[in-house]
Description:
Blueprint (H helix, E strand, L loop, with lengths): L1 H12 L2 H30 L4 H31 L4 H5 L2 H6 L5 H35 L5 H28 L2 H24 L7 H13 L2 H12 L6 H4 L14 H24 L3
Amino acid sequence: xxxxxxxxxxxxxxxxxxxxxxxxxxxxxxxxxxxxxxxxxxxxxxxxxxxxxxxxxxxxxxxxxxxxxxxxxxxxxxxxxxxxxxxxxxxxxxxxxxxxxxxxxxxxxxxxxxxxxxxxxxxxxxxxxxxxxxxxxxxxxxxxxxxxxxxxxxxxxxxxxxxxxxxxxxxxxxxxxxxxxxxxxxxxxxxxxxxxxxxxxxxxxxxxxxxxxxxxxxxxxxxxxxxxxxxxxxxxxxxxxxxxxxxxxxxxxxxxxxxxxxxxxxxxxxxxxxxxxxxxx
Length: 281
């Protein structure tokens, strides 16, 4: 298994888009840290109440992690969209599949290899954003809330990875990338629409739209639950995200929904293993 993890990393580093992603991620983290530092400096020059200071730090957390999950999702898309069909087209998969190993094990090994590096990248983003805000603004963090938020933040790109790898069995590399990006964008759009409607009251049709979207592609719902846990759950999250326009969070996914996402990922992995086993190489 270690061999496939190492091979996945070597394949990622051979792509020029990997270097571009790392550079842009570094630029984002530097600019974000600079912006948070400047905002914190302005707060010190113009003293505000502790409640307002806390609210401002939570808003910065929401905005920073929103862009961080955006970067993590596109890291998944560019790295996994050609996992199967892309390697079939360049002949690499033929050499690997010739080994005496069941195809479903090969599929799971590839998933695990990508999952490790997606988790590493997402961890760097999460820790950098949260640590920057905590150190500059004094955002209070409790260990259990931090761990729950971190775990769900990692789970979001892993769900997208599972979906993208399944698509790579059926669709050509470019078509799979476009399809996965559109599905992710569709989930993101539904979440923003739900946030806008907080001012006029949630319409039943919009509730059904958001619910069905969450069943098809649960990435945005899991991401919002991670924010909810990180910012203190019902104690503070509602205060921070009740008046942020499209970034508002009128509702959060339940524990039962999180169990559904585990079953969702398991079914997609099972379908991927089965389809890959039957695929004509």
